[in-house]
């Protein structure tokens, strides 16, 4: 890999800024000062320093985001802002994309990465990766609804969902509303909303709080994101892909 690409991809500066940094003789490859960005390096073996501070290269990027409403889970869209618009130019250049989709009016946990193998593993229908949602419902969810979820809801197009878990968190009989937690192991189009609709109720707010071993960071405000922690990356090893 070229040294200038290594430095830019490591997120320390843009390509144009990297050129200036190199001219200022602030970069070392092992013990040798380097001013030419075309110099080839081995990102696994060579030690690169900027102002005597070691620079590490990450092959894959991982971000957890608290997705807001009104933003689409896509890499590009002609009508709406995308989650990539929120994470910045560097991540976009590194090929980061959302793992799965959240509806434009759904908020909460979203994983973004440029690791295609991990995304495939987490989204594969064969893996049955569990996703957890908290939903505000117009209508009173009942024990009968819980039984229906456990048996497997039949959607409006005849599709029979896998057994799912419905937990009733609270009920407001005066306003005919419910707060529930729903766990599913599929990802059909509008699935949670359609499952609730099959019970004769309507989802009025939907938040995803987890996907597989990863959970929404409650300290993140809507639209905020951060890199995954080491403990979270460790948890992703269950998918048996290179991280």
User: What gross morphology would you assign?
Assistant: elongated
How far from one another are the termini?
19 Å
**Name given to the CATH homologous superfamily of the largest domain:** Pseudouridine synthase I, catalytic domain, N-terminal subdomain
In the CATH hierarchy, what is the architecture of the largest domain at level 2?
Answer: 2-Layer Sandwich
Global structural class: alpha+beta
CATH topology of the largest domain: Alpha-Beta Plaits
The share of residues in extended strands comes to 25-35%
What letter string, H or E per element, gives the SSE order? HHEEEEEHHEEHEHEEHEEEH
The level of helicity is 10-25%
- The DSSP helix count reads 8
What's the average pLDDT? 94
Summed up, the domain count is 3
GO biological process, one term: enzyme-directed rRNA pseudouridine synthesis
Organism: Granulicatella elegans ATCC 700633
Pfam family, one: S4
Keywords: Isomerase, RNA-binding
Features:
alpha+beta, Alpha-Beta Plaits, 243 residues, 3 domains
Give a short synopsis of this structure:
GO terms for molecular function: RNA binding; rRNA pseudouridine synthase activity. The protein is α+β, with helices and mostly antiparallel strands. It contains 8 helices and 13 strands.
Q: Can you offer a commentary on this structure?
A:
- It is elongated and about 70 Å long.
- 26% of the residues are buried.
- A hairpin with a 2-residue loop joins strand 1 (27-29) and strand 2 (32-33).
- The chain starts with a helix and ends in an 8-residue tail after the last helix.
- It has helices at residues 3-9, 15-23, 83-87, 89-93, 116-123, 143-151, 191-198, 230-235; strands spanning 27-29, 32-33, 48-50, 53-55, 62-67, 97-98, 106-113, 131-138, 165-172, 177-184, 202-211, 214-215, 225-227.
- It contains eight helices and 13 strands.
- It has 243 residues and is of the alpha+beta class.
- The strands form two sheets. Strands 5, 6, 7, 8, 9, 10, 11, 12 and 13 form a nine-stranded mixed beta sheet that branches.
- It has three domains: 3-55, RNA-binding S4 domain (Structural Genomics Hypothetical 15.5 Kd Protein In mrcA-pckA Intergenic Region, Chain A, Roll), CATH 3.10.290; 62-126 and 213-239, Pseudouridine synthase I, catalytic domain, N-terminal subdomain (Alpha-Beta Plaits, 2-Layer Sandwich); 131-211, 2-Layer Sandwich (Alpha-Beta Plaits).
- The mean pLDDT is 94.
- GO terms for molecular function: RNA binding; rRNA pseudouridine synthase activity.
- Belongs to the pseudouridine synthase RsuA family.
């Amino acid at each position: 890999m070229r040294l200038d690409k290594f430095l830019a991809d490591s997120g320390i500066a843009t390509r144009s800024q990297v050129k200036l940094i190199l001219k200022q003789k602030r970069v070392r490859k092992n013990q040798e000062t380097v001013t030419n960005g075309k110099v080839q390096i081995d990102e696994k073996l060579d030690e690169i320093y900027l102002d005597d501070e070691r620079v590490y290269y990450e092959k894959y990027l991982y971000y957890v985001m608290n997705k807001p409403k009104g933003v689409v889970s896509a890499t590009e869209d002609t009508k709406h802002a995308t989650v990539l618009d929120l994470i910045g130019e560097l991540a976009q250049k590194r090929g980061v994309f959302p793992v799965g989709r959240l509806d434009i009016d759904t908020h909460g946990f979203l994983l973004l990465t440029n690791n295609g193998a991990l995304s495939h593993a987490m989204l594969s229908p064969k893996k049955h990766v569990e996703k957890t949602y908290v939903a505000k419902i117009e209508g009173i969810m009942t024990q009968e609804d819980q039984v229906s979820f456990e048996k497997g809801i039949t959607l409006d197009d005849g599709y029979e969902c896998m057994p799912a878990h419905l937990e009733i968190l609270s009920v407001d009989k005066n306003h005919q509303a419910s707060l529930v937690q729903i766990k599913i192991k599929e990802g059909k189009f509008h699935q949670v909303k359609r499952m609730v609709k099959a019970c004769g109720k309507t989802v009025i707010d939907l938040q995803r709080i987890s996907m597989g071993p990863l959970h929404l960071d409650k300290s993140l405000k809507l639209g905020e994101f951060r890199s995954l922690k080491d403990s979270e990356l460790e948890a992703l090893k269950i998918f048996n892909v290179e991280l």
